Amino acid sequence: TELIKIAKEITTGLKYLHDKKIIHRDLHSKNILINDGIAMIADFGISKLLDETSSSSSNVAGIAAYIEPQCIIQCEQKVKRDKKSDIYSLGVLFWELTSGVPPFYGLSKFATWDKIRDYKREKTIAYTPTNYMNLYQKCWSSNPNQRPKLEWILSEL
Length: 157
Prior knowledge:
- By secondary structure, this protein is mostly helical.
- It contains six helices and four strands; from the N terminus they run αββββααααα.
- 42% of the residues lie in helices and 8% in strands.
- The strands form two sheets. It has a two-stranded antiparallel sheet with strand order 1-4.
- The longest helix is centred in the N-terminal third of the chain and has 18 residues, at 2-19.
- GO terms for molecular function: ATP binding; protein kinase activity.
């Protein structure tokens, strides 16, 4: 389907970035462009080169609904954002592909942070294929170590 095609293209783009040791840090629907029917990742304004030895600054940079819980819960501390942070955002984006609206639509940034801090997630949209639902739920796991690698995500799509 078209949804899976878009999900694959976004995942392939994110894998390319990660292979180049770049973390996007702001992956959400407004940063996905469709050109000639192909989905592409845009806006690298807060992207960073992945440096395995440094902690990240600006944990809550980006759109609230796409930021992993660790960055919101520990916003006063420097939490290392890495590839798994982008995978969390990818899972949220996959959910949005089924819903057609951003997560926690209509809530303020702070109300959204409260939901994420409490590990709340949007409900599954009716008729979402079970395999796809399981995939995005693994991506947006609250535990970064349980989030899948992009190669596995691509194989599942």
